[in-house]
Amino acid sequence: MTRRKLLGSMAGAALAQAPERPNIVFILSDDHTARDLGVSGNPVVRTPNLDRFARQGMRFTRAFTAAPQCVPSRTAYLTGRSPVAARMGRFNSPLPREVKVFPEYLRAAGYFTGVCRRNFHLDGAPGVAGTDTNAIYERHALRTFHERMDFVDRSGAARAKTPEILDQFFARKPEGKPFFLWVNFNDPHHPWDRLGTHDPKEVPVPAHMPDLPGVRDDIARHYDEIARMDEEFQWVLDALAKRGLDRNTMVIFAGDNGQALPHGKGSLYDSGLNVPFLVRWPGRVEAGRVSSELISGEDVGPTVLEAVGLPVPKEMSGRSFLAHLRGAAAGPRQYIFGARLHHGNAPFTETTRASTFDLSRCVRSKRYKLIYNCTPQMEYSPVDSARDPGWTQMVAAHEAGKLSPRHEQAYFGKRRVIELYDLEADPAELDNLAGRPELAKVERELKVALAEKMILDYDFLPPPIND
Asked: How do residues 153-179 score in pLDDT, each as one tens digit?
């Protein structure tokens, strides 16, 4: 019996007693921090559809991606493993064939599966036709998602094509089959269009950034794209409702990583890892519930598999939070972990900055976070937005000696190998407490927890402890 037939047989037996199998829709916005929803308390950003959706289901305030970058983060979401364990530490390598994504288990159990809209990032770098990189992909048959899923949209079509692409998916889905669909949005990924939806004078400036006109302008344009994404999100819900599929569908909405602003995307601070995370499952998840339990991107796959009645493979290090979704008071985690890896496809040069190449790891409890920097010598630069008004004005203020000492240290000071933050006292993560005698026990505890994660993931970086 082949491996696929065996999987199908096992899955069929596991589901034999299940009275009803839910459909699964997994939706990702691109570069979206948790606080940037109206329902999260942001008084300015316009997200009426997501706010309404959040009230219909469950909202998690402490959901974290496994990496602050799209490729490794999506790897964790789909595989239930850290990107380090899945060997996805760079953008130009497709997901290894032997590393399975959770939709493959759903497909073996009779689900119709698909992925659509923005490039999903797990089949190698996009836009490389005719290049040496593409020749390598083809020579070694490295692109595999056409084998992993039934419907693979690689068009990268404009936002307006979303309803049409959804129609194509549902037209191909066999009658009566449950389905899994992964929808990826372009917005609010940088570069940000100026749509005029938000006034720069009204946007809140997070404490980790100086209040400069350029910073406000960047945030306003970013919010404009969040509002546009909110409209596209509703199109997906409408496609379910018009087919009568919304009542038996678990819909998960999340960000792939945080906003592409300083201290955000590409960093292991909460602005880079803490993303919106909303789950609606009518009749199964209590409407309007809010959770502050720790959730990792690694946990999505195990949760979905358990929700449909399938066993969670031992290779998955993520932990199912299905019991918490169904009403259990506590979640499954004491810590979440994050990994910063190479970003983009550019080779290393003499002028490469941390925005492209930086290696660090973190562990976070509900109160404390420890960051372990293994390339602290890399000069900081924000991912994607280094040429925008916000960062250029921050650089100018630094050169003129006009930045506050805290912002000066955060962006232009010498980085330390270990950073430790009390997130209750310092949610902006600007006051590094590493080495403080009164927190020695906390620091040691977090280092040991991180070392265990790195050892279990076969991490290539040296551990943060040597005993």
From this structure: 998 888 999 999 999 999 999 999 999
Contact status, residue 181 vs residue 26, Cβ threshold 8 Å: yes
Q: What is the largest CA-CA distance in the chain?
A: 71
Kind of pairing between the strands at 151-152 and 58-60: unpaired
368-373 and 360-364 beta bridge pairing: antiparallel
Cβ-contact 90, 70 below 8 angstroms: no
Instruction: Kindly tell me if the per-residue pLDDT of 276 is higher than 60.
Output: yes
**Overall residue count recorded for the chain in this entry:** 467
Based on DSSP, count helices (H) and strands (E) in the chain, helices before strands.
14, 14
Could you tell me the pTM of the whole model? 0.94
Kindly tell me the burial class for residue 30, based on how many C-beta atoms sit within 10 Å of its own C-beta (0-12, 13-18, 19 or more).
Answer: buried
246 φ/ψ angles, rounded to the nearest 5 degrees: -70, -25
pLDDT in tens, 257-270: 999 999 999 999 99
What are the residues whose beta carbons fall under 8 Å from the beta carbon of 10, sequence distance 6 or more? 311
Report the chain's C-alpha Rg in angstroms. 22
DSSP 295: E
Of 339, 348, 338, give the one whose Cα is nearest residue 378: 348
125's CB contacts (< 8 A; 6+ apart) are 91, 92, 133, 345
Question: What is the dihedral sign for C-alpha 12, 13, 14, 20?
Answer: positive
